[in-house]
Design a protein that fits this description.
Layout: H1 7-22, H2 31-43, H3 64-68, H4 74-79, H5 81-98, H6 121-124, E1 129-132, E2 135-138, H7 144-160, H8 163-167, H9 172-181, E3 191-193, H10 195-203, H11 205-214, H12 216-240, E4 252-255, H13 264-270, H14 272-282, E5 290-294, H15 302-307, E6 312-315, H16 321-327, E7 332-337, H17 339-343, H18 347-361, E8 367-371, H19 381-394
Parallel strand pairs: 3-4, 4-5, 5-6, 6-7, 7-8
Antiparallel strand pairs: 1-2
Helix pairs in contact: 1-18, 7-12, 10-11, 11-12, 12-14, 18-19
Length: about 400
């Protein structure tokens, strides 16, 4: 049974699932009304008059394979935007019938409107992105404290040198002039693999833990150079887009699954100072995006995240809404459906987890029903429709 789900939740969920089975697998929902109410609810999850719980998980391109019954080909999915768009079109035809919307983007990016690729934080720290087992993996670039010291020396030299030339390709100026003339601004840098996950990729998870425990001075140097590099890269990209520190857009988002590996003292030493400094620079106002995704059991770090004034959180499926809300009263909480509950089509648990979360989130609102992590292949449109039916029947405010 899913975590914190009650017998009442299960009873209501079983009843709705049985109705869906009697209707050929399609849960009972007034699609036109759902989407009209969804538009109001999703526009402002805090709204005092929103009619129903907002739905966040509108599936993803990763769901194409199982839904359409085609062989998984993650390399083509990742590298062939024309194929992905064509397949999304077939998916959307099915989605229109089942959930009443074409969900996935069928857009094929115009490469003539895209800026040439630039180097990023991982390049600065010499970590290679390698395609392996259906995904890119960031590989370690230092093993042991001596190699880490030497790596940090090289990172520091790059930061003290001509970092702009290191980051930008040779054809940057000509492409920038061409694209600016067409009204296309360079992309900004407003999101990053979180500090613990990034450092664990560069140095290894277990070595990073021992480093923080056994050599906090070297860990602090590692931390400070990550922070310095993030701020330097962001500043250069702001300048390329024509912004000054006073005019640069606000907001920052982290993805830090591995933060769960550190206890609060370790995180306060290593991760917290990076988040605080970046937020102070790029999210100085209370309403600015201060977001984090961590689909891991990292509830022990919530008091520290609470001190950062988080405004958007998508945390692991074992970190409950009521616990998040105690520490982060101003955050829009995006969760807490376990991704594998959805991708394994555990229909009763899908509804039961919604009922649990609605009970926890209805009083304060500021909550969007979403997966606590990725929407994985195997997640079906009938499961999404089941959630829509649960929202329409059991997730209305004032009912």
């Amino acid at each position: 049974m899913s975590i914190n789900v009650t017998a009442k939740h299960l009873q209501l969920a079983e009843s709705l699932v049985e109705e869906a089975k009697r209707n050929g697998g399609l849960a009972p929902v007034d699609l036109a009304k759902f989407w009209a109410d969804q538009e109001l609810a999703h526009a402002n999850p805090w709204g005092p008059d929103i009619p129903q719980a907002p739905l966040g998980m509108l599936m993803s391109h990763e769901c194409l394979f199982a839904e359409l019954g085609i062989e998984e080909d993650w390399y083509k999915y990742t590298h062939d935007p024309v194929w992905r768009a064509q397949t999304a079109k077939a998916y959307n035809t099915k989605a229109d019938r089942i959930v009443g919307r074409r969900i996935l983007s069928e857009h094929v990016p115009d490469r003539t409107k895209q800026y040439p690729g630039t180097k990023g934080l991982h390049d600065l720290f010499e970590a290679k992105n390698i395609w392996n087992v259906n995904s890119y993996w960031l590989m370690e670039s230092a093993h042991g404290e001596d190699e880490l010291q030497a790596l940090l020396d090289r990172v520091e030299q790059r930061l003290d040198g001509d970092l702009r030339s290191f980051l930008l390709p040779d054809n940057w100026e000509s492409e920038k002039a061409r694209l600016l003339a067409e009204g296309v601004k360079p992309p900004l840098y407003r999101g990053q693999r979180g500090p613990v996950t990034f450092a664990a990729s560069v140095y290894g998870p277990e070595p990073l833990i021992y480093l923080v425990l056994d050599n906090p001075g070297l860990a602090a140097r590692f931390r400070d150079l990550i922070l310095r590099a993030i701020l330097a890269i962001a500043r250069i990209k702001d300048e390329e887009a024509g912004y000054t520190p006073d005019t640069a857009p606000h907001g920052w988002y982290w993805a830090d699954d591995n933060c769960c590996l550190m206890n609060p003292d370790m995180y306060e030493h290593f991760g917290y100072p990076i988040l605080k400094a970046v937020f102070d620079r790029y999210s100085p106002n209370p309403e600015d995006l201060r977001g984090q995704h961590s689909d891991s059991p990292m509830g022990h770090l919530l008091p520290l995240l609470g001190q950062l004034g988080m405004t958007n959180l998508n945390l692991g499926p074992t970190v409950m809404i009521d616990e998040i809300r105690r520490h982060c009263p101003r955050a829009v909480i995006r969760g807490q459906l376990a991704p594998f509950t959805l991708s394994r089509n555990e229909e009763v648990n899908i509804v039961a987890e919604f009922l649990r979360d609605f009970d926890m989130g209805r009083e304060h609102k500021g909550w969007v029903f979403d997966t606590a992590g990725s929407i994985n292949n195997g997640s079906m449109l009938t499961g999404m429709r089941l959630i829509m039916a649960a929202i329409q029947r059991y997730g209305r405010f004032g009912a």
